[in-house]
Amino acid sequence: MFNRTTLVILVVALAAGLGLLASQRFFAAPAPAGPAMETVRLFPQPRTLPDFSLRQSDGTQLVPGELKGHWTLVFLGFTYCPDVCPTTLAELAQAQKQWEALPESTRPRVLFVSVDPQRDDPDRIGEYAHAFHRDTLAATADVPALEHFARSLSMVFAKVPAAEGAPPDSYTIDHSATIAVLDPQGRMAGIIQPPLQPKAIAADMAALTQASFK
Q1: What is the rounded (10 degree) CA torsion for 160, 143, 56, 167?
Q2: Distance (Å, rounded) from C-alpha 179 to C-alpha 112?
Q3: How far, in Å, are 145, 148, 149, 177, 180 from residue 142 at the CA level?
Q4: pLDDT in the model for residue 33
Q5: Which residue among 94, 112, 181, 194 is least enclosed by CB atoms within 10 Å?
Q6: Going from the N-terminus, what domains does the chain have, and what CATH number goes with each?
Q7: pLDDT tens digits for the chain (214 residues)?
Q8: pTM of the model
Q9: pLDDT of 18
Q10: Sign (positive/negative) of CA torsion 36, 193, 22, 61?
């Protein structure tokens, strides 16, 4: 018999597999003409995200219109994450340092979305994200809103209860490690899959930015 934790992990794995299958269908046709990409995988056609509302670390609301005007990399995680999240944000910070010379008005952005609102309040996620790079945006929301947002990016997350006998708040969260790539219209235009290559990410995002804002 499966215990609850095993069942949750299996559900997440199945959902992640379905998400990967869906993304592969996007890549069945060649990507649109544009700059050659090293690690960003662009969809043949960007897709519009449904309405969403997240709460940023500065207390303001993050809605679709706020993501327009820049290429944006979106990563789901949580501040208590022991490995994947800090490693990913550190690698993205390396890429951010390489595109700092681009004009601030069009410079690519990184958005960290915490899927652990129980422990991650706006102040905490802001401090956490800015510790990696001062320009990193951070946001969260209640669980239903986060689930809605994650599904729109073909991503998943699930709470894994604490081990028997451990403090209840020592739970962890399984989540997608893929990075969503949003275009300057706020549409999902592609993905970046691990392992991450900071130099390649920086080169791709700089090329996309220059092509979009000639």
Answers
A1: -40
A2: 10
A3: 6, 10, 11, 20, 20
A4: 55
A5: 194
A6: 4-212 (3.40.30.10)
A7: 334 444 444 444 444 444 444 444 444 444 555 789 999 999 999 999 999 999 999 999 999 999 999 999 999 999 999 999 999 999 999 999 999 999 999 999 999 999 999 999 999 999 999 999 999 999 999 999 999 999 999 999 999 999 988 999 999 999 999 999 999 999 999 999 999 999 999 999 999 999 998 7
A8: 0.86
A9: 43
A10: negative
Encode 3-42 in three state secondary structure. Answer: CHHHHHHHHHHHHHHHHHHHHHHHCCCCCCCCCCCCCCEE
Which pLDDT score, from 0 to 100, does residue 158 have? 97
Answer yes or no: are the C-beta atoms of 188 and 43 closer than 8 Å.
yes
Q: Which two tokens stand for residue 173?
A: 């969260």
Q: How far apart are CA 9 and CA 7, in angstroms?
A: 5
Q: What are the φ and ψ backbone dihedral angles of 14, each rounded to 5 degrees?
A: -65, -45
DSSP string, the chain: ---HHHHHHHHHHHHHHHHHHHHHHHTTSPPPSSSPPSS-EEEEEEEPPPP--EEETTS-EE-GGGGTTS-EEEEEE-TT-SSHHHHHHHHHHHHHHHTTTS-TTT--EEEEEES-TTT--HHHHHHHHHHH-TT-EEEE--HHHHHHHHHHTT--EEEEPPPTTS-GGG-EEEE---EEEE-TTS-EEEEE-SSP-HHHHHHHHHHHHHHH--
